[in-house]
Amino acid sequence: MRSAIETIADLGYAQASFARIAERAGLKSTGLISYHFAGKQDLQAEIVSFVLDDLSRWMHEQLAGVERADQALEGYIRALIAYMQTRSPHLRALAELLLHGGMSWDASDQASATSGLEDILRWGQETGTFRPFDVGVMAAAVQRSLDGLPLLQKGNPALDLDVYADELVELFRRATVVDGSAAKEDGKW
Amino acid sequence: MRSAIETIADLGYAQASFARIAERAGLKSTGLISYHFAGKQDLQAEIVSFVLDDLSRWMHEQLAGVERADQALEGYIRALIAYMQTRSPHLRALAELLLHGGMSWDASDQASATSGLEDILRWGQETGTFRPFDVGVMAAAVQRSLDGLPLLQKGNPALDLDVYADELVELFRRATVVDGSAAKEDGKW
Amino acid sequence: MRSAIETIADLGYAQASFARIAERAGLKSTGLISYHFAGKQDLQAEIVSFVLDDLSRWMHEQLAGVERADQALEGYIRALIAYMQTRSPHLRALAELLLHGGMSWDASDQASATSGLEDILRWGQETGTFRPFDVGVMAAAVQRSLDGLPLLQKGNPALDLDVYADELVELFRRATVVDGSAAKEDGKW
Amino acid sequence: MRSAIETIADLGYAQASFARIAERAGLKSTGLISYHFAGKQDLQAEIVSFVLDDLSRWMHEQLAGVERADQALEGYIRALIAYMQTRSPHLRALAELLLHGGMSWDASDQASATSGLEDILRWGQETGTFRPFDVGVMAAAVQRSLDGLPLLQKGNPALDLDVYADELVELFRRATVVDGSAAKEDGKW
DNA sequence: CATGAATGAGATTTCATTCAT
DNA sequence: GATGAATGAAATCTCATTCAT
Fold it and tell me: Binning pLDDT at 50, 70 and 90, where does residue B154 land?
């Protein structure tokens, strides 16, 4: 499965045949893959749920103990970028499969990934930390800005991820903050 | 070529075989596609350049006569969303091909699409309309938020594009505006 | 037809498609070929008979007025090599078609080409100029040695055809001459 | 591979598609051929080297212990004809591939087949057994006369190979022997 | 004479999958 | 767990041929 993830991440969904996965895994036959997984869809589904579980666990760890919604949003952005740095192929493979695999895409996706973000945004609005905005649109903007990163890195490999994270945090702080809140500029927190 | 664009947009790059394109075009054989295009890569390249030309023309039309960078940014967002409404398959096919086709991806892409956006952002910073930020990151965030739209629509077909446009405009107005500028809120313009 | 001959000679029977022939002829469609010839076999048959006619005419010209069989044999060898020098593609195309086209191969071949040679050999034996040998085998040896030339030239483009001709003439003079005949060495003729 | 050799020998290079080879091999799909060989060129290359190896081994066996060049030449002719009798398809396939496959044709060919013959001829000239002649031309004549045999058989299936061998041996004995050598006629060997 | 659209057959090749070993 | 033979489907591409213009 590790080889499958890496192959999908490197070559893309369309090129990730059993033959190429087996090659990367050091296997001389694709038979073993078919033996362990019920089919290509099964393999894809297992990869998706594996990566989503791993990602979900990571996000919960990183966001534990957060007390305010703006901190949670910043933490979300930084945690996801940090995850990319350590498990970049996982996310690229996930994106490939969610986009192009004929996956169910049902509960798993929304529940684990994006709706966690929507929850944060809603929380911020309810506690008066965030201005009113459409939660779905804002969540999509954050999510897209984050998962566009691998693409950006392909075009510009020297990209500094820390700078990218800082910029995105500031971008969405300004986009979400309530109008009168000059807090950050005053350095109060 | 129209059939090819629609097929790629609907079924995705991986599923858009010559057979399916021919079927949609009402052809009884895939031979004619190979007859008109030198190969699959040629077809893809011609689609990309066709769509980029069309898109570039549209954007220039819509942004003609704009005098300030913030207006240009708003216009860029609204023009691209409007383009999606009229030529949705074009953009979806373009995204598929740029992401998964082994395309050259060279001058054409950056020049026509994203770097137009970067030019706007730089212009705004130089004229004092925009605060300092990393132009590349901001451009990527805008672009990703925009081309994530088709995906959003797939999950939520009832999505109101005008609302989406308004929200994005406001989001990135706040994200780019210079700190002291309370102008908009005062309703002066 | 000239383009067809050249294409077959240069690329070989298997690669000589209508498309490539049309290309060489400066045509933009293969339709015209199908219009002028009833089919691929028809084109092949017409090429074969055309080349055989041309070759037959040439050989008759060159061998006219010969009075002895040994002179005829030498003339045959030299005339065929000379023909190769001026109409090399004709012979190469002919060989390709006779070998690989599903041609009839009936009367035309034997009559015009080889059996002319066999006639010479039989004539020499009847007039006592040639020793007894199997006419078929000797004719095959001469013919093969001759039409192997293009192959030899491909491997060694600097080959001197005059030397080749001299060597073959001498080779087959010795192979055919009656035992006691020391005439040539004595320079009497 | 056996089926491939037979198919090429029987139908010729142009007609020997994977489908026909698979059919002869009793396979229900051509996929297996692509599975075992990297491509059509690979299959061809492997056939060529296999046949050349086999032929080379045979010729070395047959020519072992020969002490004079004229014996070697006679042995060469008889051994090759004998090989044709037992492994006719091998040689026909080899000829097809060397003529029409876009093969490398490099070392393997010359080394194993023809240049063995040239070595014999040179040896004979150095030891005074053979008259002076162009070794390349003579070798080509011998070789062509030999591999023209299958063609001859196609036109005349009743051909007696022993007679053919005898005739060729005598033909090239006379063509190569030094002028004064009356040895054979005296029956000394 | 010439073009270009169109077609059906067939070629090579890749793929997922099954199965015996 | 692992291999390799085998298969049928599908993909890209080429080809000869037809036909309307």
Answer: confident
What angle separates helix D18-25 from helix D2-11, to the nearest 10 degrees?
120
Q: Identify whether A11 is part of a domain.
A: no
The DSSP result for C129-167, as a single string, is SB----HHHHHHHHHHHHHTHHHHHHH-TT--HHHHHHH
Q: How far is the CA of D40 from the CAs of C8, D36, D91, in angstroms? A: 21, 11, 19
Is any atom of strand F within 7 angstroms of residue B36's beta carbon? no
Give chain C's count of helices (H) and strands (E).
11, 0
Q: Is B144 on the interface with A (CB under 8 A)?
A: yes
Report the pLDDT value the prediction gives residue B109, as an integer from 0 to 100.
53
Chain D touched by C67 (CB under 8 Å): no
Protein residue with the closest CA to the C1' atom of nucleotide F15: C17
User: Is 50 exceeded by the pLDDT of residue C107?
Assistant: no
Judge contact between D106 and D174, C-beta under 8 A: no
CB-CB contact of A142 with A172 (8 Å): yes
Summarised one tens digit per residue, pLDDT across range C138-166 is: 999 999 999 888 878 777 778 888 999 99
Q: Is residue A7 a part of any domain in this protein?
A: no
Residues from chain B that touch A10, judged by Cβ atoms under 8 A, are none
Question: Considering CB atoms only, which of B134, B145, B174 is closest to A145?
Answer: B145
Could you read off the pLDDT of C3-48 as tens digits, one per residue? Answer: 999 999 998 888 899 999 999 999 999 999 999 999 999 999 999 9
For residue A115, name the pLDDT band (cuts at 50, 70, 90). Answer: low
Whether pLDDT at D101 is above 80: no
User: Which residues of chain B lie closer than 8 angstroms to A44, CB-CB?
Assistant: none
Query: pTM of the entire structure?
Result: 0.86
Is B157 part of the contact surface with chain A (CB cutoff 8 Å)?
no
User: Based on the structure, what is the number of domains in chain D?
Assistant: 1
Assign residue D83 the CATH number of its domain. Answer: 1.10.357.10
The answer to the question of residue C6 being in a domain is: no
Reading the block at residue B28, the tokens are 């009884």
Distance in angstroms between the alpha carbons of the first and the last residue of chain A:
44
Q: Which of B177, B179, B178, B152 is nearest to B165 (CA)?
A: B152
Task: Give domain status of residue B124, yes or no.
Answer: yes
Q: Do C137 and D185 touch (CB under 8 A)?
A: no
The domain in which residue A73 lies consists of 41-179
pLDDT band of B101, cuts 50, 70, 90: low
Residue B152: list chain A partners with CB under 8 A: 136, 140
| Calpha distance C21→D45 (Å, rounded) | 28
Nearest nucleotide (CA of B17 to C1'): F11
pLDDT of residue A147: 84
pLDDT of A189 reads 44
- Cβ–Cβ below 8 Å for B138 and A167: yes
Q: Which nucleotide is nearest to C36 (CA to C1')?
A: E1
